[in-house]
Protein backbone atom coordinates (compact mmCIF):
# COMPACT_ATOMS: atom_id res chain seq x y z
CA UNK A 1 0.00 0.00 0.00
CA UNK A 2 1.35 3.46 -0.84
CA UNK A 3 0.29 7.10 -1.25
CA UNK A 4 -1.66 6.49 -4.46
CA UNK A 5 -3.63 3.62 -2.88
CA UNK A 6 -4.79 5.96 -0.12
CA UNK A 7 -6.66 8.26 -2.49
CA UNK A 8 -8.61 10.89 -0.54
CA UNK A 9 -8.06 9.08 2.78
CA UNK A 10 -4.57 10.53 3.23
CA UNK A 11 -4.21 14.02 4.65
CA UNK A 12 -0.43 14.20 4.55
CA UNK A 13 2.76 12.20 4.69
CA UNK A 14 4.40 13.03 8.00
CA UNK A 15 7.50 10.84 7.67
CA UNK A 16 8.55 9.33 4.37
CA UNK A 17 9.96 5.84 4.13
CA UNK A 18 13.35 7.40 3.37
CA UNK A 19 13.24 9.52 6.54
CA UNK A 20 12.26 6.48 8.59
CA UNK A 21 15.00 4.37 7.04
CA UNK A 22 17.67 7.02 7.68
CA UNK A 23 16.64 7.49 11.30
CA UNK A 24 16.50 3.75 11.99
CA UNK A 25 20.04 3.44 10.59
CA UNK A 26 21.20 6.10 13.06
CA UNK A 27 19.40 4.44 15.96
CA UNK A 28 20.91 1.04 15.09
CA UNK A 29 24.39 2.58 15.04
CA UNK A 30 23.80 4.05 18.52
CA UNK A 31 22.56 0.68 19.77
CA UNK A 32 25.58 -1.11 18.28
CA UNK A 33 27.90 1.33 20.05
CA UNK A 34 26.06 1.32 23.39
CA UNK A 35 25.82 -2.48 23.65
CA UNK A 36 29.18 -3.37 22.06
CA UNK A 37 30.34 -6.78 23.24
CA UNK A 38 26.92 -7.71 24.62
CA UNK A 39 24.01 -9.72 23.28
CA UNK A 40 20.63 -8.02 23.15
CA UNK A 41 17.15 -9.36 23.56
CA UNK A 42 14.76 -7.24 21.49
CA UNK A 43 11.20 -7.34 22.81
CA UNK A 44 8.60 -6.24 20.29
CA UNK A 45 5.21 -5.09 21.48
CA UNK A 46 2.51 -6.42 19.17
CA UNK A 47 1.09 -5.42 16.92
CA UNK A 48 2.29 -1.97 15.98
CA UNK A 49 5.99 -2.64 16.49
CA UNK A 50 6.26 -5.29 13.79
CA UNK A 51 7.61 -2.95 11.10
CA UNK A 52 10.05 -1.15 13.40
CA UNK A 53 11.32 -4.48 14.72
CA UNK A 54 11.80 -5.88 11.21
CA UNK A 55 13.70 -2.86 9.92
CA UNK A 56 15.62 -1.79 13.05
CA UNK A 57 16.80 -5.31 13.87
CA UNK A 58 18.20 -5.80 10.38
CA UNK A 59 20.37 -2.72 10.81
CA UNK A 60 21.88 -3.93 14.12
CA UNK A 61 25.20 -5.76 13.78
CA UNK A 62 25.33 -7.20 17.31
CA UNK A 63 24.05 -10.68 18.04
CA UNK A 64 20.38 -10.37 19.00
CA UNK A 65 17.43 -12.50 19.95
CA UNK A 66 13.83 -11.45 19.45
CA UNK A 67 10.75 -12.11 21.50
CA UNK A 68 7.26 -10.64 21.48
CA UNK A 69 4.61 -9.50 23.90
CA UNK A 70 1.00 -8.60 23.28
CA UNK A 71 -0.65 -6.32 25.80
CA UNK A 72 -4.00 -4.63 26.08
CA UNK A 73 -5.16 -1.71 28.19
CA UNK A 74 -8.10 -2.26 30.47
CA UNK A 75 -10.80 0.34 30.26
CA UNK A 76 -13.03 1.81 27.64
CA UNK A 77 -12.28 3.29 24.26
CA UNK A 78 -8.94 3.48 22.53
CA UNK A 79 -7.09 5.46 25.17
CA UNK A 80 -4.64 3.79 27.49
CA UNK A 81 -5.81 3.47 31.06
CA UNK A 82 -2.43 2.50 32.46
CA UNK A 83 -3.77 -0.84 33.65
CA UNK A 84 -2.37 -3.38 31.29
CA UNK A 85 -3.30 -6.99 30.66
CA UNK A 86 -0.79 -9.40 29.12
CA UNK A 87 -2.36 -11.20 26.15
CA UNK A 88 0.87 -12.93 25.13
CA UNK A 89 3.85 -13.09 27.44
CA UNK A 90 7.51 -13.56 26.57
CA UNK A 91 8.86 -17.06 26.08
CA UNK A 92 12.31 -15.90 27.22
CA UNK A 93 13.68 -15.88 30.79
CA UNK A 94 14.91 -12.31 31.34
CA UNK A 95 17.35 -13.16 34.14
CA UNK A 96 20.64 -11.38 33.44
CA UNK A 97 19.58 -10.31 29.94
CA UNK A 98 20.05 -6.93 28.30
CA UNK A 99 16.53 -6.16 27.11
CA UNK A 100 15.54 -3.52 24.58
CA UNK A 101 11.80 -2.95 24.19
CA UNK A 102 10.92 -1.99 20.62
CA UNK A 103 7.82 0.15 20.11
CA UNK A 104 6.15 2.03 17.29
CA UNK A 105 4.77 4.89 19.37
CA UNK A 106 4.65 6.28 22.88
CA UNK A 107 1.54 8.34 23.35
CA UNK A 108 0.41 8.79 26.98
CA UNK A 109 3.36 6.65 28.10
CA UNK A 110 1.11 4.53 30.28
CA UNK A 111 1.66 1.25 28.42
CA UNK A 112 5.43 1.58 28.41
CA UNK A 113 5.60 2.74 31.99
CA UNK A 114 3.77 -0.40 33.05
CA UNK A 115 5.82 -2.61 30.74
CA UNK A 116 9.13 -1.23 31.98
CA UNK A 117 8.21 -1.95 35.59
CA UNK A 118 6.93 -5.40 34.68
CA UNK A 119 10.06 -6.44 32.76
CA UNK A 120 12.42 -4.88 35.33
CA UNK A 121 10.82 -7.07 38.01
CA UNK A 122 12.02 -10.20 36.17
CA UNK A 123 15.72 -9.84 37.04
CA UNK A 124 17.20 -8.57 33.76
CA UNK A 125 20.65 -6.96 33.58
CA UNK A 126 19.03 -3.92 31.92
CA UNK A 127 15.82 -2.80 30.24
CA UNK A 128 15.70 0.13 27.82
CA UNK A 129 13.23 1.36 25.21
CA UNK A 130 13.55 2.16 21.53
CA UNK A 131 10.55 3.78 19.87
CA UNK A 132 10.10 5.16 16.39
CA UNK A 133 7.64 7.85 17.48
CA UNK A 134 6.88 9.78 20.64
CA UNK A 135 4.24 12.43 21.32
CA UNK A 136 5.73 14.56 24.11
CA UNK A 137 2.62 16.73 24.42
CA UNK A 138 0.41 13.68 25.02
CA UNK A 139 2.51 12.32 27.90
CA UNK A 140 0.61 11.53 31.08
CA UNK A 141 3.57 9.89 32.75
CA UNK A 142 7.30 10.40 32.24
CA UNK A 143 9.01 7.42 30.67
CA UNK A 144 12.75 7.23 30.31
CA UNK A 145 13.19 6.37 26.64
CA UNK A 146 16.75 5.74 25.50
CA UNK A 147 16.19 5.76 21.73
CA UNK A 148 13.56 7.95 20.05
CA UNK A 149 13.17 8.14 16.30
CA UNK A 150 10.99 11.23 16.04
CA UNK A 151 9.07 13.45 18.43
CA UNK A 152 5.78 14.37 16.77
CA UNK A 153 2.76 16.55 17.46
CA UNK A 154 -0.25 14.94 19.17
CA UNK A 155 -2.14 14.16 15.97
CA UNK A 156 -3.54 10.81 14.91
CA UNK A 157 -1.02 8.97 12.76
CA UNK A 158 -1.18 5.77 10.75
CA UNK A 159 1.19 3.62 8.74
CA UNK A 160 4.43 1.78 9.33
CA UNK A 161 2.68 -0.50 11.84
CA UNK A 162 0.21 2.05 13.18
CA UNK A 163 -3.46 1.43 12.46
CA UNK A 164 -6.82 3.07 12.38
CA UNK A 165 -9.41 0.35 13.09
CA UNK A 166 -6.74 -2.20 12.12
CA UNK A 167 -6.21 -0.63 8.68
CA UNK A 168 -3.20 1.17 7.19
CA UNK A 169 -0.55 -0.76 9.12
CA UNK A 170 1.15 -1.74 5.85
CA UNK A 171 1.81 1.81 4.64
CA UNK A 172 5.59 2.24 4.20
CA UNK A 173 5.39 5.80 5.58
CA UNK A 174 3.75 7.54 8.56
CA UNK A 175 0.90 9.84 7.66
CA UNK A 176 -2.22 11.52 8.93
CA UNK A 177 -5.73 10.60 7.86
CA UNK A 178 -8.23 12.93 6.26
CA UNK A 179 -10.89 13.80 8.86
CA UNK A 180 -13.69 12.18 6.81
CA UNK A 181 -12.12 8.75 7.45
CA UNK A 182 -12.60 8.90 11.20
CA UNK A 183 -15.63 11.14 11.19
CA UNK A 184 -13.73 14.24 12.23
C1 LIG B 1 0.00 1.48 20.81
C2 LIG B 1 1.52 1.43 20.86
C3 LIG B 1 1.80 1.32 22.31
C4 LIG B 1 0.66 2.08 22.95
C5 LIG B 1 1.14 3.44 23.32
O1 LIG B 1 -0.51 0.20 20.81
O2 LIG B 1 2.03 0.35 20.13
O3 LIG B 1 1.84 -0.01 22.75
O4 LIG B 1 -0.39 2.20 21.98
O5 LIG B 1 0.12 4.19 23.92
P1 LIG B 1 0.30 4.84 25.35
O6 LIG B 1 1.65 5.52 25.36
O7 LIG B 1 -0.82 5.86 25.40
O8 LIG B 1 0.17 3.80 26.37
P2 LIG B 1 -2.05 -0.13 20.57
O9 LIG B 1 -2.74 -0.24 21.90
O10 LIG B 1 -2.63 0.84 19.58
O11 LIG B 1 -2.00 -1.60 19.95
P3 LIG B 1 -1.35 -2.11 18.56
O12 LIG B 1 0.14 -1.98 18.71
O13 LIG B 1 -1.79 -3.52 18.46
O14 LIG B 1 -1.90 -1.24 17.45
- Molecular shape: globular
**Which structural category fits the helices and strands?**
alpha/beta
Number of strands: 9
Total of helices = 4
Mean pLDDT: 94
Topology order in helix (H) and strand (E) letters: HEHEHEEEHEEEE
Question: Which strand order do you get reading across the main beta sheet?
Answer: 4-3-2-5-6-7
| Helix content class | 10-25%
Ends apart, CA distance between termini = 23 Å
Strand content: 25-35%
Main β-sheet: number of strands, strand sense, barrel status?
Answer: 6 strands, mixed
Account of the protein in words:
A six-stranded mixed beta sheet has the order 4-3-2-5-6-7. It is 22% helix and 31% strand. The longest helix is centred in the N-terminal third of the chain and has 18 residues, at 17-34. The chain is built from four helices and nine strands. The protein is of the alpha/beta class and 184 residues long. It binds 1-O-pyrophosphono-5-O-phosphono-alpha-D-ribofuranose. Residues 45-48, 80, 103-112, 163 line the site of 1-O-pyrophosphono-5-O-phosphono-alpha-D-ribofuranose (PRP).
Amino acid sequence: MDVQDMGQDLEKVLLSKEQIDTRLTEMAAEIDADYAGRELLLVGVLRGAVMVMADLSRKIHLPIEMDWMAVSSYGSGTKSSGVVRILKDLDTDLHGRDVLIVEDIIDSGLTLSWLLANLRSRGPASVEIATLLRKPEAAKVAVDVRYVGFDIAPEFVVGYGLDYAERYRHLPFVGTLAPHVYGG
